[in-house]
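subagent[fold] <- orchestrator: predict structure for attached chain, return C-alpha cells only, no commentary.
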Amino acid sequence: MAADGFERSLLAAWTTNCRVTASLIGLVPADLWSAAVPGIPTRTIRSIAAHLHNARCRWVKTLGGEHGVAVPARVDQRAVTRRELVTALRLSGRGIAAVLQLGCDRGGQVPPSKGYTWRNLALDVGHVLTYFVAHEAHHRGQIVMAARQLGRRLPATATAGLWQWRTPRGQGGGSGR
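subagent[fold] -> orchestrator:
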C-alpha cells in the first residue's frame, strides 16, 4: 500500500533525523570519541552514541521483530569506532523506518506486539516517530554538552542542523524550525 502525503512526511522526517544523527557522529573529533566526560568517568561520547543505535535495535525488535522487520545487531559501546557506528546507525535507521512503514501500511497504526509493555495497544505512527526523535535529540544534546565539558566545540557543520527533524518546506514536511 502506498503511503499518503502525511505518511510520506513522517518517513521523510525520520530520514532527516537519521541524517542529522549520522552527520553529528561522523564529525565528532577523534580525540573526543573515547574521552571520559568530566564527573562521569564511565560516560563517553562513544557510549552515548552507541546507546542511540542500541536503543533503536531494541525498538525494532520490540515493535517490528514479530512482524517481519529485520532486527539490526547491537554494538559494543566500549569498542565501536565512529565509522562502524555511522554504518550501524544507518542500518538501525532503516529498521526504524521499516517499523514506521509497517504502521503506515496498516492505517497509521504500528500493530500490537507481544514484546511491548501494552501488548494489545496499536501505536499511532506519528506518536512513535515523535518519541524516537525526541529520544535522539536528547542524546545529541548530551554529545554536544559532553564535547563542551571536554573543552571543545563541535564543528558548525556538525551542529547546524542538530535540532532539525522535519524536512524543509515543500519537501513533504514542516518548516524545519
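orchestrator: received. Logging for downstream: Strands lie at 36-37, 40-44, 109-110, 123-124. The two ends are 31 Å apart (CA to CA).
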